[in-house]
Amino acid sequence: MNKTVYFDNNATTKVAPEVLAAIEPYFCELYGNPSSMHTFGGQVGHNIRDARQQTADLLGCEPEEIVFTGCGTESDNAAIKGAIAAQPNKRKIITSRVEHPAVLQVCRDLEAEGYTLAEIGVDSQGSLDIDQLEEELDESVALVTIMHANNETGVVFPIEQIAEMVTSRGIIFHTDAVQTAGKIPLDMKESSIDLLSISGHKLHAPKGVGALYIRKGTRIKPFIVGGHQEANRRAGTENVPGIIGMGKACELAKDNIEDENTRVKDLRDRLEQQVVAKCSNCWVNSKEAPRLPNTSNISFEYIEGEAILLMLDQLGICASSGSACTSGSLEPSHVLRAMGVPFTAAHGSIRFSLSRYNTAEEIDYLAEHIPAVIEKLRELSPFAKK
Amino acid sequence: MWEYTDKLREHFFNPRNVGEIENPDGLGDVGSLACGDALRLTFKLDENGRIKDARFKTFGCASAIATSSVLTEMMKGKTLEEAEKITNKDIADYLGGLPEQKMHCSVMGREALEAAIENYRTGGQKKHELEGKVVCTCFGVTEEEIERIVAENNLTTTEQVTNYCKAGGGCGGCLGEIEKIIENVQGQQAHKKPTPTHTRPKKLTNLQKINLIQQTINEQIRPALRAHGGNIELIDVESDKVIVAFREMCAQCHLAEFTMKEVVESKLREFVSEGIVVEEEEQSARQPHKHRE
């Protein structure tokens, strides 16, 4: 097999060919500014409206509740900082210890500015400590921000239960749903979630576009100012091709959500079953918890993740790792550490994340070649048992 | 993705001298699973006292494996006196260079070599041990080791020290101390720079003082507590009395009182004002908190 076998879809995804076709005219033909007074620019505004409707349909909300942003990280920043700024008298924020840095770092920066921050822990399967969350809820809380599903382990939190618990106390609730949009059905009409972030390039739209759902009536201060775009909630000339791509990708995601939960999930299960059967001293992290259908995080004891990735790379297989060496930091993934995964296994954790473009042949190719990689590195390791 | 040289990649994919010599003349064990890399080095001498065979076993990333592999190649044929002159820089140079953040791999190689030679000279008695005061508790790096790495590689920033030996790369609580070590070592060397020493501000408005206290907590105190699963929050400032609350693991820790005086108060005195007294908020004083194991 000479082609690339791509199992890193939680990092980014391929742009769907249908999305690319939809975007293409917006570079050299329909390049007008939607804010312009002439028809040439104005027509683009109509197409953005369609994209907003497509995005709203995926989330089950009104189009006016969608604000397009530059990426998922911007959506998270805008939601957290915007909600906090709108309630200057409330000084406490609650999040979880396993958030993506786009949330966790923002919260910790606010803590450094004098906000009180509570970080909710997880158990060994990566499930959230709901009791601890409930204990932390009081009248000083301005915002609770808890991710929908974890990007490293794929663990899905009971987001509706959490949203209900938080919003029934009059507290704003934000969730980072970057990993779940298109994989788990979302219906904001039936939900208590106030703010929800999604990212284009995680669901086969191009990089450089995201969206933030803002429930009607939620008070939030604009994060980027200096223009009337997005109903004064996010200034700056629209990334038209990105937004059109986002709309198309959301439409496709809605159509494919069943496929993600059946065929893609079967591929993931096949991957786990084969890898665990063929390699010794390895296990699937968070196997007992509810998980995304496409994500598998496997720990290989006594060997190090970066070395595994490089050997897989040599075979054309793309994956990622929670080891220290891959991140450029010196400590392994904060998610696995929060779960208490032992060091013998945290450094050797590999994440495989699939998409609807993966095939059974690719899974079998991985399963055929990974045992030799693991074996070779174990032979090098002073800790591996003979 | 790391920028590895072709030579490094070649040694990673085809490592030389893998294994462990039975009844070796010298054995060196450095690193640990927790640290993310570890190396066991063994060697055997010939009748002329030259290294006849050297073998390694390494747990770690591609550059850790490649540096171990070239180290065994470099050692072979050398007397122990010659071998102990190999520096971490020699190892990195042999590979055509290492990414800056991976320099600690070459240092691990040199440490293993020294440990193995020491083990031989003490007749197999002595294993590698930490000597002197431990500066970085996250990765177990001593003052002596940091001084040596700074001097040998002419390092000038704490970031470099972290890249070369990991010290300061965990909770970051020792970065101030590392900075002092760099100043000391570089001060002893020829190009002496005026060392900026930390001075407490003479006069502060109330607002400036509260900001400085908050900043000191953020930068000097919280990172160390967070490394152990704890946290601290500033509650109030009344003149020189600073009221704080311990959170998370600190809230149930019986060492919190010690932390309060030895860490919180002493840091605030050092950075803000001599007269500061720290107290724990009364109503929230360490209520038992439910935590999972």
Which features characterize this protein?
heterodimer, A: 386 residues, alpha/beta, Aspartate Aminotransferase, domain 1, Aspartate Aminotransferase, domain 2, 2 domains, 4-stranded antiparallel β-sheet, 13 strands, globular, B: alpha+beta, Sufe protein. Chain: A, Arc Repressor Mutant, subunit A, 3 domains, 3-stranded antiparallel β-sheet, 3-stranded mixed β-sheet, 10 helices
Q: Would you give an account of this structure?
A:
The complex is a heterodimer of chains A (386) and B (293). Chain A has two domains: 5-13 and 257-380, Aspartate Aminotransferase, domain 1 (Alpha-Beta Complex); 17-255, Aspartate Aminotransferase, domain 2 (3-Layer(aba) Sandwich). In chain A, the strands form three sheets. In chain A, strands 2-8-7-6-5-3-4 form a seven-stranded mixed β-sheet, sandwiched between helices. Chain A has helices spanning 17-23, 25-28, 39-59, 72-85, 101-112, 130-136, 159-167, 229-232, 240-278, 305-314, 324-327, 334-338, 343-346, 360-380; strands at 5-6, 66-69, 92-96, 116-120, 141-145, 172-176, 195-199, 210-214, 282-284, 295-300, 317-318, 320-321, 349-353. Chain A is 42% helix and 14% strand. In chain A, helix 1 (17-23) packs antiparallel against helix 9 (240-278), helix 3 runs parallel beside helix 9 (240-278) and helix 9 crosses helix 14 (360-380). With 386 residues, chain A is an alpha/beta fold. Chain A is globular and about 70 Å long. The mean pLDDT of chain A is 95. Chain B is an alpha+beta fold. Chain B has three domains: 6-121, Alpha-Beta Complex (Sufe protein. Chain: A), CATH 3.90.1010; 134-186, Arc Repressor Mutant, subunit A; 206-285, Fe-S cluster assembly (FSCA) (GMP Synthetase, Chain A, domain 3, 2-Layer Sandwich). Helix content of chain B is 42%, strand content 17%. Chain B is built from ten helices and eight strands. In chain B, a hairpin with a 2-residue loop joins strand 6 (230-238) and strand 7 (241-248). In chain B, helix 9 crosses helix 10 (256-271). The longest helix of chain B is centred in the last third of the chain and has 22 residues, at 206-227. Chain B is elongated. Chain B starts with 5 loop residues before the first helix and ends in a 13-residue tail after the last strand. In chain B, 40% of the residues are buried. Residues 286-293 of chain B have low confidence and may be disordered. The chains are: A alpha/beta (386), B alpha+beta (293). The A-B interface holds A 111-114, 116-119, 121, 123, 129, 131-132, 135, 302-307, 310-311, 314, 323-326, 328-332, 340, 343-344, 347, 379-383 and B 2, 9, 12-13, 15, 18, 20, 29, 33-34, 36-40, 57-62, 64-65, 101, 138-139, 162, 166, 169-170, 214, 218, 231, 233-234, 247-248, 290-293.
